[in-house]
């Protein structure tokens, strides 16, 4: 083994051990930022696997199997002979955000970053190859493609370790949780009037700039108008995001709600569907 090869093997393992010492379950990633494949015993889930597990840890196989589920904080496992070959080939280190009680909002391009800056509370930021990871304290179900260029990595998922990032990590907000919420079926008919649905509360307004609300409404309209599929779900998630950010301070007016309803109806939604989606979003958030 050459000195260069040895350094490449030791560096990822050293990072993984440091993460493990700080309570972050980690695992080796091969080229392409993907986990190592299952061993022969676990191939095609022959071992039974643990596909529904919600906490990190390998199955009975001592190898680096089952992707994110192999992530561990046990230094003896990380340094075991069964993991040695993987570390020797490792191109990066991955970690299980959910196991570290963290949610990663993966922003894959400049447009997604701009959306986050306009919509999400400021939190810890980690630069990536094409965008940024925004880290929040708390866990939620993972999901890909919650909107253009945005993935959620938390429970039952893995992310590439790119450093600790900068900034203070804040608590996971409702607006992020809302990105992965499916619209519930309304239990009873709801009124078709907009007026009674406009205001969400009289709490303290925390908008960062005077036109923050107007930009948020404009972005929400654009998201609805640009939807090419799953329009009904997009409308609901958009309403939920707007209410998560602006629903408790009392700033939403009938004019703002009417703009959102108009955008939705232009995509084929009926007034009844709009009213149901708005009411369900308010109920979900406890407004």
Q: What features would you highlight for this structure?
A:
287 residues, alpha+beta, 6-stranded mixed sheet, 10 strands, 36% helix
Protein architecture, described:
By secondary structure, this protein is of the alpha+beta class. It is built from 9 helices and 10 strands. The chain has helices at 3-21, 75-78, 81-89, 110-119, 174-177, 212-225, 231-246, 254-266, 271-285; strands at residues 26-30, 34-35, 92-95, 102-107, 124-127, 132-137, 143-147, 150-153, 159-160, 170-171. The strands form 2 sheets. Strands 4, 5, 6, 7, 8 and 10 form a 6-stranded mixed beta sheet that branches. Helix 6 (212-225) packs antiparallel against helix 7 (231-246).
Q: What are the SSEs and their pairings?
A:
Layout lengths: L2 H19 L4 E5 L3 E2 L39 H4 L2 H9 L2 E4 L6 E6 L2 H10 L4 E4 L4 E6 L5 E5 L2 E4 L5 E2 L9 E2 L2 H4 L34 H14 L5 H16 L7 H13 L4 H15 L2
Parallel strand pairs: 6-10
Antiparallel strand pairs: 1-2, 1-3, 3-9, 4-6, 4-8, 5-6, 7-8
Question: In short, what is this structure?
Answer:
It contains nine helices and ten strands. The protein has 287 residues and is α+β, with helices and mostly antiparallel strands.
Query: What is the distance, rounded to the nearest whole angstrom, between the alpha carbons of the first and last residues?
Result: 63 Å
- Strand residues, percent: 5-15%
The profile of the biggest β sheet is: 6 strands, mixed
How many whole angstroms does the radius of gyration measure? 22 Å
| SS element count, helices | 9
Structural class: alpha+beta
Overall spatial form:
elongated
Residues in helices, as a percent range = 25-40%
Averaging pLDDT over every residue, what do you get?
82
pLDDT under 50 segments (min length 5)? 1-9, 51-57, 188-201
């Amino acid at each position: 083994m050459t000195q260069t090869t040895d350094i490449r093997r030791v560096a990822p393992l050293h990072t993984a051990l440091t993460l493990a010492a700080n309570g972050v379950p980690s695992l080796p990633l091969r080229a392409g930022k993907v986990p190592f494949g299952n061993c022969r015993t676990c191939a095609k889930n022959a071992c039974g696997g643990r596909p529904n597990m919600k906490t990190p840890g390998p199955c009975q196989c001592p190898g680096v199997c089952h992707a994110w589920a192999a992530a561990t904080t046990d230094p003896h496992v990380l340094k075991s002979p069964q993991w040695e070959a993987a570390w020797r080939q490792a191109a990066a280190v991955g970690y299980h955000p959910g196991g570290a009680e963290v949610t990663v909002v993966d922003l894959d391009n400049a447009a997604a970053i701009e959306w986050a800056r306009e919509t999400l509370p400021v939190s810890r930021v980690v630069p990536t190859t094409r965008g940024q990871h925004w880290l929040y304290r708390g866990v939620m179900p993972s999901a890909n493609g919650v909107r253009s260029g945005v993935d959620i990595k938390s429970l039952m998922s893995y992310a590439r370790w790119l450093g600790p990032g900068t900034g203070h990590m804040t608590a996971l907000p409702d607006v992020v949780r809302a990105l992965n919420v499916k619209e519930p079926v309304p239990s009873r008919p709801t009124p078709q009037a907009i007026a009674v649905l406009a205001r969400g509360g009289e709490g303290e307004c925390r908008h960062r700039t005077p036109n923050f609300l107007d930009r948020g409404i404009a972005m929400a309209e654009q998201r609805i108008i640009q939807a090419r599929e799953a329009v009904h779900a997009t409308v609901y998630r958009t309403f939920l995001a707007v209410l998560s950010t602006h629903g408790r301070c009392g700033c939403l007016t009938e004019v703002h709600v009417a703009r959102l309803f108009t955008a939705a109806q232009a995509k084929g939604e009926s007034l009844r569907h709009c009213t149901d989606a708005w009411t369900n979003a308010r109920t979900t958030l406890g407004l």
